[in-house]
Amino acid sequence: MAGLQLGRGYDEHGDGLPPALGADLGPPLRDALGHPLRRQILRVLQRAGGVRSLSELAAAVGAGEVLVAYHVQVLEGCGLVRSDGSSCAFASAADGQVPAILKATRRTDTRLYK
User: What is the pLDDT of residues 67-113, one digit of tens each?
Assistant: First the structure.
């Protein structure tokens, strides 16, 4: 069942990006921000204000390191994070809409991940 469901998220899986927030983003950025775990990773990096290891990120979001490493690669691919393979940081050149998207999706995402 497509569309917004009470108590779920923004798409049929309960985890997508609200259409109004993703409308102005290019497909790679929209796809990267469409996953709640990626948004949680960005929130952790944004709050940290510095470099975090993959193990620190994994602990902070409550997911395995391999899964976090995969999502960090996706985020790095669209310029939202910088990574050296074992640690990463929020990219200062990240799209200006990202903080607004993270704020708007926070409540729904924290029900799914830490």
Answer: 999 999 999 998 899 988 888 988 765 567 888 888 888 887 776 66
DSSP string, 27-76: HHHHHHHTSHHHHHHHHHHHHH-S-EEHHHHHHHHT--HHHHHHHHHHHH
Specify whether the CB–CB gap between 65 and 54 falls below 8 A.
Answer: yes
**Interacting residues of 74 by C-beta distance below 8 A, sequence separation 6+:** 31, 32, 35, 38
Which domains occur in the chain, in start order?
A: 19-112 (1.10.10.10)
The residue assigned the tokens 């990574």 is 83
